Amino acid sequence: MSHDSTFQNRITLAGSLIAIGIVFGDIGTSPLYTLNAVFHDKIITETIALGSLSCIFWTLFFQTTLKYVIITLQADNNGEGGIFSLYALIRRYFGKWLIYPAMAGGAFLIADGIITPPISVSSAIEGVQQVVPGFNTIPIIIAIIIGLFVFQQFGTEKIGKIFGPAMVIWFGFIGVLGVLAIGDNWSVLRALNPYYAYQMLVLEPGGFWLLGSIFLCTTGAEALYSDMGHCGKNNIRISWLFIKITLVLSYAGQTTWLLDHIGETIGAVSPFYHTVPQSIYWFALVIATLATIIASQALISGCFTLINEAIRLDIWPRHLVLFPGNIKGQLYIPFINWLIMFGCIGMVLYFKESTKMEAAFGLSVTLTMIMSTILIFFYLKMRRVSFIWIALVTGLFFCIEMSFLIANLQKIAEGGWITLVIGTILFLIMYIWNRGKTIKDSITNLVSLEKYIPILKQLSVDEEIPKFTTNLVYLTASNQQGKVEQTVIDSILNTGTPKRADIYWFIHVNVTNEPYGLNYTVETIVKEDIYYIVFNLGFRIEPRIDFYFRHVVDEMVINKEVNLSNSREIKYQKYAFGDFKFVVRDSFLSYDNNMPFWKNIIMKSYYNLRYLSVKEHINFGLDKSNLILENYPLTVIPFDENRIIRKDK
What we know:
This protein is α/β, with parallel strands linked by helices. 56% of the residues lie in helices and 10% in strands. The protein has helices at 3-9, 13-22, 25-28, 34-39, 46-71, 83-94, 99-125, 138-151, 156-182, 194-203, 211-214, 221-226, 228-231, 233-259, 271-274, 281-312, 334-351, 354-360, 363-382, 387-408, 412-442, 453-461, 486-493, 545-558, 597-609, 616-619; strands spanning 446-448, 467-475, 483-485, 500-512, 518-526, 530-538, 580-589, 627-634. The longest helix is centred in the middle third of the chain and has 32 residues, at 281-312. It is elongated. The model has no long low-confidence stretch (mean pLDDT 84).
């Protein structure tokens, strides 16, 4: 059994604690605002109160338990989860066109992640206004959000140690609070009969549109899948049993309060706070605030995982990815962290209060769930599940999610347009990066080094040409031994004076799926002249290629695989293998292009997006003292029209 499989299947107390602390924050704080969204500015009626509880229970069953906890968590890719992981599992069986629903799903999930921290934290902090009317909560909300994002760099292992016990207390608290609110009125659980949901949705005028608010109870389900790599799927599953019971008890307790106040309104405070005894109100406020901070963590961690997978799939610009903890799947992306933070602050300043955020919340993640259902259909097909069962299960999910989408469309005018715009922009970035990279790779010409061996050997000993360096090193994207890009050969021979060196080295960096693997292979193309090195680095290993290269060459000199004793400069130099220069080549879009309008837009946008990505020499850990950066023009479609005609006098 592989390490990834063991990690995913193992059930431990520590793993379950981290799962409760990291994964369930978003869905676990939904009792703070779900029924508040349903009854805001509405008269309480028995039909809607019982119908809402019924809809919430069955939504949690179908969307969270059946779709994500039971089915989707099966689709782990080397221990990682998320919609891009799901796509990576099935693309080789059904074609690359599935990248489009995957990109749409990922884009809208990240967009929803920008509004999750503001609404979660606001819904808790605004409880202060019950005790201190008119209290300005915005500065506190922004301060908490900034603190949360600053804390990300320390890793989710440390966060889990703090958040796990706190969330156990939170879930226990809302469960007990629900039981106390129910009291002797356990007949409220009759709402678990789906008839009450039918009665509200079909028979109650306007009842169907309340699904837009009901949906808030399950918005954290997609993040649950994205965070699978942090905790393991079986730890998530076992924790969900406890969490679902406490959630249902909390909603049932709030429904009991609603039934006791038929004909009234909920006022300015969520039904959740109405169930809190006055003697522990401040305690409830503090623990709710802490829980909503943790709720934000679920989406933030999920966003890091999504972006990292998008980078690997070449559908997002490459950023610096750090691994601050020792637990598998945990990572930190500074650029994304600060981008989401500023987006969250903007949401707080725009909406100002949670009731307005509730109107915009959930629309974009509905689209994510629909996209994931499409991918789940093909995943089940790949697993050779009976087509009848696939059609029944995914058809059920699709009907439920389309109902939620239709009900959520009313949110567009109320602020939902913001997350739709953000999601669309993120999708366009993914589409442009993917298409631009595909076009660029399609015109990259690989040539065999064997063809250039004679001229490189001749150049190496031609003393009429000044020596450029003892060791000339090129990074190549080619994973085919003995082949490099034509632009690399052009750099040596055709950019001014040919670059004479004693030895030419070509390095390819291969990032493996193993976290800590570190090894290399060397192919001797021409002894003492041309070598091809492949570094196989685990995805957690920092790529210090400059350091690794010196180690490899030093080892080869000691083993007498390389002999540089004939080089005149060696006796004056620090290292036994002489000096070296890394050459990193980067393209720019040539003016000599004659592309169609749409391809021109794609390629120009692609090159503009490259300003957002980390530079190659930084990504590979190359010291500037040994570095040469070169640019070369990229011609997609050559311009060969309107040739100038000479006119003699």
